[in-house]
Design goal:
Shape: globular
Distance between the termini: 24 Å
Radius of gyration: 18 Å
Strand order of the largest sheet: 8-7-6-5-4-3-15-14-13-12-11-10-9
Largest sheet: 13 strands, antiparallel
Helix content: under 10%
Number of strands: 15
Number of helices: 3
Strand content: over 45%
Order of helices and strands: EEHEEEEEEHEEHEEEEE
Structural class: mainly beta
Length: 274
């Protein structure tokens, strides 16, 4: 997810047709892009001004049992044009209804993360080490949801390839230091980045021991802001290769550029029923 995976003043940094803060992708300059620039492009590919969405999360056990959860998510791009704010509310079932998470990216510092646990009626602030924790029992971590900062990793372009009929760059990323490795829980990532949209179509993750941990695939890529050239996947399928557990997230509704207030993205808003 930057599951950022995810959506959303222009900084004065330009590289061969790539406006880094605006993330306007110039296909003619694609061959000149470095691995780092490709991952910066991927990080911003879905970041519209703001967005509202409704999602269904399906958790599948290795034995086949399933749990289905409904969520509402709102995102907003911050004034720097790079960092995103995201609030996710669980609507059902009853055992998780009312749980809310607030995730705020901070370039050059630790991201801010809060979670409201409805059963305890308490807002809890998370620390950097919580990024490696499972996001409410799914096969994605809080770090996957908020997104992995390109500057925290060293990137190498391994090759150009074809994945699911799409021309892609295959990028290998390793943590820039042991702190990033420890906080994310990953020793390596392999990302298949769509050359058209910069969306990560497939991401493989290796754990700290060097064993393949999980695979996340994104599909149903649609244009959500033709002017700013932004794209969004509407379906994610994550599989833990070690346990066999799986997570599917499907966007039932997605609306970009809705004029969402900044007041939505504050810790005190977590307890409000919106």
């Amino acid at each position: 997810m930057r599951i950022g995976v995810f959506p959303w003043t222009v900084a004065a940094f330009r590289v061969a047709g790539l406006i880094v803060a605006g993330f306007v992708f110039d296909a003619a300059a694609a061959n000149a892009m470095t691995a780092h620039e490709i991952m910066v492009c991927s990080d911003g590919a879905s970041k519209v001004g703001d967005a509202k969405s409704e999602l269904t999360m399906t958790l599948t056990e290795a034995a086949g049992g399933q749990r289905v959860r409904k969520m509402q998510m709102m995102t907003k791009l911050q004034s720097d044009g790079i960092d995103n704010k995201r609030i996710i509310r669980f609507l059902s079932p009853a055992d998780i209804k009312g749980t809310v998470s607030l995730l705020i990216e901070k370039t050059g510092g630790d991201d801010d993360m809060w979670i409201y646990l409805s059963a305890l009626k308490k807002v809890r602030r998370l620390v950097a080490d919580n990024k490696r924790d499972s996001f409410v029992g799914s096969d994605m971590t809080f770090g996957d949801i908020i997104g992995h900062k390109p500057t925290d990793w060293t990137h190498v372009l391994l090759r150009e390839d074809v994945f699911d009929g799409n021309q892609v760059w295959v990028i290998e990323s390793v943590p820039k230091d042991n702190q990033v490795k420890s906080q994310t829980g990953y020793a390596k990532r392999l990302t298949f980045v769509d050359r058209r949209s910069c969306i990560a179509l497939k991401s493989d993750y290796w754990d700290e021991t060097g064993a393949l941990l999980k695979t996340i695939r994104a599909s149903d890529i649609v244009s959500v802001d033709s002017v700013a050239k932004k794209w969004q996947f509407m379906h994610i399928d994550a599989v833990n290769q070690q346990s066999g557990h799986g997570t599917v997230i499907h966007f039932d509704l997605y609306q970009a550029n809705q004029g969402i207030s900044d007041d939505v993205f504050t810790p005190r808003s977590l307890e409000k029923d919106r």
